[in-house]
Amino acid sequence: MNNIVRDTPLPQAGKAVGIETLGMTMRFGSFTALDNVSIDVPAGSFHALLGENGAGKSTLVKCIMGFYHATSGSLSVDGREVSVASPKDAATYGLGMVYQHFTLVPSLTGAENLVISRTSVPSVINWAKERKDLAAFMERMPFQIPLERPVSELAAGEKQKLEIVKQLYLGRSFLVLDEPTSVLTPAEADEMLGIVRGMTERGELTVLMISHKFHEVTKFADAVSILRRGKLVGTGKVSELSTADMAAMMIGDVKLAELDSRLPVPEAAKSVLKVEQVKAPDRSGLKTIEIDNLFVRSGEIVGIAGISGNGQKELTEILAGQRPTDRGTVTVNGEAYGATRPETRKNNVRFIPEEPLQNACAPKMTVSENLAFRTFDLKGDGKDAIWLNKGEMKKRATSLISDFKVKTASSSSPIAALSGGNVQRAVLARELTGDVDLLIVSNPCFGLDFSAVAEIRARIMRARNSGTAVLLLSEDLDELLEMSDRIMVISEGKLVYETPIRAADIGVIGAHMAGHH
């Protein structure tokens, strides 16, 4: 056997393993992140782990996976107590994890990412054989992914699928899924979770899923464990618990911010944004984005629904001035708009992009500096400033942090030190302060917890009710149905369907998203 032949057989469907934690406790100095938590996830079950951000879910799974060494307590795999000192140890027991944030190498293709993820890789790789093996393996997978494309070119939904495929490719038989569907459409999420659920029912896989989506938990999980402030506050069969029961255990007695009552869009409302006959190349340069007629009126939310990778990203780049167009016009308030800083300022256009830490922040700069990006070069009277006014920046930041409930040690902490929900709150604070004529928002609630989601949606709704035109691009159809006045579907770079929310039919929207139109 020479060194170019595959060193390990292609994994076949495995046999699920079960795990149990007993009295798992994790202290960081005087702070107890996890307090005596015992959960049992039997082999072949689909178990959901619920709790607000900071409830201890991540700490628990990091103890299971060997990233943390629990202060006390034990872990059993298939009834045998084991010591998991590292993720490598976890892998030897068949335990794997799919993270909310991607772990793939962006510059490599999907195929290369899969092959190099094996524990031992031949020094010379026989790609003809690997591709044949991968094709056979992918035939058994629930979704097709273009394995020949660099991961950096894949949309978020495709990357998440590849993360799951990678774990199955490595032969894992117990998977922790950390909010696996936050970047998938409802149809993709249902399909993926349905396949994973099928694998648990056949005894090939055990799943522990961290989720904030109750409908996924009730549809796919057998049992649920709920954490609050580091303690296990409830556990039980999903069939015996209502979503209201689960929410009450998760949140305790806190009252959630209600979504504002929605005023109807006035008939005479003017179009703030118009995109007409716009054509531009997509990310691959092989296809085109063609937006013939998109308009958003004052006091209206237009939702753009679509399966990840169908041109949403390119559309936001065109509107942000980051993607040149071959033809067509973009106008805001009746004037040609090229997204320059003066035009953005004059027309009060604001942006909340997907993954705001990467796309709307300078991660190493302070919270105060990030909050000043729109105003640092202006004096109080609106004229150009020559010097930075640090005192004014700090004062303004302190006020915004308080208004938008941004949890941060201090306004001079780097923004990268904040949790995802707090980064999103900080970006909202910057973008929604002052007059806003047009707000362009992309997946605003990606990976956020229950109360942060309600609060952020309420803020966007409040902007709409005060006359802002909102373009909301989201891969969460529930979010679009809850928030939008009109929904448009984007498929293969074109807007293919439009419906007012009162007449919206999920089946029809889903069929157009999937390209059946």
Task: Specify the CATH architecture of the largest domain.
Answer: 3-Layer(aba) Sandwich
Main sheet: strands, sense, barrel: 6 strands, mixed
The CATH topology assignment of the largest domain is Rossmann fold
- Gyration radius over CA: 24 Å
Q: Superfamily at the CATH H level of the largest domain?
A: P-loop containing nucleotide triphosphate hydrolases
Concise summary:
This protein is α/β, with parallel strands linked by helices.
Explained architecture:
There is one protein chain. This protein has helices at 57-65, 87-92, 110-116, 127-139, 156-169, 186-201, 214-220, 243-251, 312-319, 341-346, 356-359, 367-371, 390-403, 420-431, 450-465, 477-483, 506-513; strands spanning 19-28, 31-41, 46-50, 72-77, 80-82, 95-98, 174-178, 206-210, 223-228, 231-237, 271-281, 288-297, 301-305, 327-332, 335-336, 349-352, 438-442, 469-473, 486-491, 494-500. It has three domains: 19-245, Rossmann fold (3-Layer(aba) Sandwich), CATH 3.40.50.300; 270-348 and 436-445 and 467-517, P-loop containing nucleotide triphosphate hydrolases (Rossmann fold), CATH 3.40.50; 356-434, no CATH class. The protein is 31% helix and 24% strand. It has 17 helices and 20 strands. Helix 14 (420-431) runs parallel beside helix 15. The protein has 517 residues and is of the alpha/beta class. The strands form four sheets. It has a six-stranded mixed beta sheet, sandwiched between helices. Mean pLDDT is 85; it is low at 1-13 and 254-260.
